[in-house]
Every structure is written in structure tokens, then in C-alpha cells.
Amino acid sequence: MRLFVAVTFTESIKTAVYEVEERLRQYCNGGTFTNRENLHLTVVFIGETNRIEEVKQAMNGAVSKIAAEPFLITINGLGKFRRNEGDIYWMGIEKQEVLWKLQKALVKELKEAGFYDIDDREYKPHLTLGRRVRVKNDFHEKEFAKDIPSLKMEVGKISLMKSERVNGKLVYTEIYHTIIHC
């Protein structure tokens, strides 16, 4: 199974982000855009494994070790990672100390459980809007970004997500979650 741990979004946040994505599409000559139902914030990408129980234990351990209460994240801005085959466009997440601590604790717990391939570079949370995006010449990123609303959402859980193709469509399914509480 292809797994990752994520913050899932409320329907209202998905709608608002998807509206930004739809506006961005108007300025593109191509790209693959995130399906509305798949919008999420990756905390840790795990990859292919069937060791679900160990991942659950790591999630529970990380939440327990940081002893946090539910926290607020702010989604705003527009950015991109440059790629030869087309850029990855994303919305940013403002620095939120609890989120960073949670991500670091989860990476540590997973590595201690034997998931040695987990990426432990500096966490750069972002919400992917599209991959392999090629914008038209008349696209002005800074102007476009001025009209993106700042979105706030309380995070009260982290979710273990399964990624799979169903009838040719990428589908993310929550298979477990851990509640964030002291």
C-alpha cells in the first residue's frame, strides 16, 4: 500500500482552495491538477508498505510526545517549485510551531520503527494545486496571488491515508486517524 500521513481539510477549505485552483487553470496551457476530494496537507510521506500497525503506533507516539492541543493553520499565498517538465504550483502554510514539532516527532517515531527511507529534510508544508503546470505568457503570478484569500482551519487530528488508482483515477482514503489532545 502507498501511504502518507496528512492533515485533511474541511469541505469549506476544500471549496475555497479548489476555487483558487480553478482560477489558476485558466492561465495554464497544461498540467495535472489536484482533484478537490484529494486536497490535503502532507505531514509525512511513507511510501509503499503494509506495516500499518507500526505507522499507527508512530502516529500515536508522536501526538503523545508533543502533548499539543488542536491548533490553527493558515493557508495563503502562491508558490511554485520549478521543474523541467512543468512547475508544481502550491499554496503555502504559515509557520505554525505545533505543526513543525508534530512532523519532526512523527519522522523520529517512524525512523525508530524501521522506516529508514522517510525524508527528514526541513519540512516545507504546502498544498499542491497542480503538477507539470505550464502557464501562459500573460500570467502574472504576483497579481494572481494578491486575490488569494487567507484561509484558517483548526487541526484536531492527523490521518493515515492510502493512495491508489481506482478506474484510472487517483483516490486518497483515510484508513486511520489520531486525535490531537493533551
UniProtKB/TrEMBL annotation:
Family label: Belongs to the 2H phosphoesterase superfamily. ThpR family.
Motif (HXTX 2) on chain: 126-129
NCBIfam families (UniProt xref): 2_5_ligase
GO molecular function: 2',3'-cyclic-nucleotide 3'-phosphodiesterase activity; RNA 2',3'-cyclic 3'-phosphodiesterase activity
Keyword Metal-binding: no
Coiled-coil region: none
Stored Pfam families: 2_5_RNA_ligase2
EC number of this enzyme: 3.1.4.58
Catalysed reaction equations from the record: a 3'-end 2',3'-cyclophospho-ribonucleotide-RNA + H2O = a 3'-end 2'-phospho-ribonucleotide-RNA + H(+)
Gene3D superfamilies associated with the record: Cyclic phosphodiesterase (3.90.1140.10)
Role of this protein: Hydrolyzes RNA 2',3'-cyclic phosphodiester to an RNA 2'-phosphomonoester.
Keywords: Hydrolase
Name of the protein: RNA 2',3'-cyclic phosphodiesterase
Residue ranges annotated as motif HXTX 1: 40-43
Active-site residues, record numbering mapped to chain: H40 (proton donor), H126 (proton acceptor)
